[in-house]
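Protocol step 4 of 6: structure prediction from sequence.
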Amino acid sequence: MRIPQDARFRAERAQFVLRFCCETCGGFDPERAACAYGYPVAEHRLARYRDPDAELVFCKDYDAV
């Protein structure tokens, strides 16, 4: 799912401590910087969201983790 990252999302992300990036997923292998399920990680890494204009891209396994 792709949605714009707006001011409301950033506020709710901070307020509710939302976790939606690879670094907070149990399926992420930090030593390899890779997904244990084989999904690409480039669009899901925390560093990408330092850009307030970066589009939100949720992982295909988001609901399962």
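Step 5 (inspection) to follow. The beta strands are 2-3, 28-29, 34-35, 56-57.
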